[in-house]
């Protein structure tokens, strides 16, 4: 389990990784399905690099210039865990 976060570059980073099994460059990263917002098993990309400085960097299967629609899941911890979904069609 981990979180995949973007930083406006071409390669998102894995954070809060529960290192239960070793990972290596080329391993496929997919959605977990936990939380019920996305189904499990959607391929996201592959592990592109692993380093002490930058952590685990993902090479996405889709380049960001080819994305027309995104879903942002934002979590608030003020009253328990609540997910706020923001769906954006960026092709319009």
Question: Main beta sheet: strand number and arrangement?
Answer: 5 strands, antiparallel
Strand order of the largest sheet: 1-2-5-4-3
Q: N-to-C SSE series?
A: EEEEEEE
Class by SSE composition: mainly beta
Strand content: 35-45%
Give the proportion of residues in helices.
under 10%
User: Overall mean pLDDT score?
Assistant: 76
How far is the first residue's CA from the last residue's CA?
A: 34 Å
Q: Give the overall form.
A: globular
What would you report as the Rg, rounded to the nearest angstrom? 14 Å
The total beta strand count reads 7
Low-pLDDT stretches are none
> With helices defined by DSSP (H or I, 4 residues minimum), what is the helix count?
0
Structure description:
This protein is an all-beta fold and 92 residues long. 0% of the residues lie in helices and 43% in strands. It has no helices and seven strands. The protein has strands at 3-5, 13-15, 28-30, 43-51, 55-60, 69-76, 82-89. It has a five-stranded antiparallel beta sheet, with no helix packed on it. The protein is globular, with a radius of gyration of 14 Å. The N and C termini lie far apart (34 Å).
